[in-house]
Design a protein that fits this description.
This protein has about 300 residues and is an alpha+beta fold. About 45% of the residues lie in helices and about 15% in strands. It has one domain. It is built from 9 helices and 9 strands. The strands form 3 sheets. Strands 2-3-4-5 form a 4-stranded antiparallel β-sheet, with no helix packed on it.
Length: about 300
């Protein structure tokens, strides 16, 4: 008869959530993981309309900044003193240029070069308009007039993420101690699991809403913006796996004093077996008593 320890399953789920949450929150620090941005702003087409339109009031100013030997460039941002793209992380903003295609130099590829990252304080707000106007050549500052002045803040999301990661870490410590000491369940940690899931869910929802608003930006030298699939996958994976950890914790409290056992060899049938020597804490027994009085235990 083999035992299935649910505490071990929750422990490894918590480890997985902790790892995913740290990768999500630390992406972009020291120029690493630039492929996991919160959002990407594609500004590679900035100024091209004025460059190709002789009737534009900024045409002469834009043309004067571009060398005469440059013909049909896919991007002129380097001559305007701005970058082809800007990406947001929780603790940094990175920027760089796209590499033109070797077979067709008039087309930009998704490959990047000359990447620079600037550290930002926790909970910063990003404004593409302010970023562009701060470096744009004064002769063509009018190119940013029609650019959105909207700011995207990370304050609420990062605060929720801090709380979630803290509670996951505390759950990890509690489960490690529980497994080491041989205690099957620590009912007290269900609150930490619930708070962590709610925080991850709220933080993911906030950033998803902001990402969708960024995806709708177009025109005035902005877009199309690459979709941050990797970031969304990471942030929602944290929410899903933490929810599973919470469900396992709730299942453990609901069935506290019992464990799964496999009946017979190769039968594949599982049943509950009562464990009469459960050593849960007083608060844990109180939670169990409340749940059972509510008909949930």
């Amino acid at each position: 008869m083999r035992k299935f320890n649910i505490s071990v399953a929750e422990f490894w789920l918590v480890v997985l959530v902790l790892a995913l949450s740290l990768v999500t929150i630390l992406a972009g620090v020291r120029g690493t993981n630039t492929g996991i941005p919160i959002a990407t702003f594609n500004t590679s087409s900035l100024g091209l309309d004025a460059y190709h339109d002789p009737s534009s009031s900024l045409h002469d100013a834009v043309v004067s900044l571009i060398p005469s030997d440059v013909v049909n460039p896919p991007s002129i941002t380097q001559y305007l003193n701005v970058k082809d793209w800007y990406i947001m992380h929780y603790f940094s903003v990175c920027s760089g240029y796209y590499i033109p295609s070797s077979s067709n130099p008039s087309v930009l590829t998704s490959s990047t070069t000359n990447i620079t990252c600037v550290r930002r304080y926790s909970g910063y707000s990003f404004s593409l308009h302010d970023t562009i106007t701060s470096t744009l050549s004064s002769e063509v500052i009018g190119l940013a007039e029609k650019m959105t002045a909207q700011r995207w803040s990370t304050r609420t999301a990062i605060s929720a993420w801090y709380t979630g990661v803290s509670n996951v870490f505390l759950s990890f410590v509690a489960l490690s101690f529980a497994l080491w000491c041989g205690r099957a369940w620590w009912s007290e940690t269900i609150i930490m699991s619930l708070i962590a899931w709610l925080c991850f869910f709220i933080g993911s929802g906030i950033m998803t809403h902001q990402i969708l608003s960024i995806q709708r930006l177009s025109g005035s030298g902005v877009g199309p913006n690459p979709y941050p699939g990797s970031f969304l996958a990471l942030t929602w994976a944290c929410s899903v796996f933490q929810f599973l950890a919470f469900c396992i914790r709730w299942l453990g409290i609901r069935t506290v004093g019992r464990e799964w056992v496999l009946v017979g060899r190769g039968s594949g049938r599982w049943r509950w077996k009562e464990e009469l020597n459960w050593k849960g804490g007083s608060s844990g027994r109180l939670v169990v008593r409340i749940l059972r009085n509510m008909g949930l235990g």
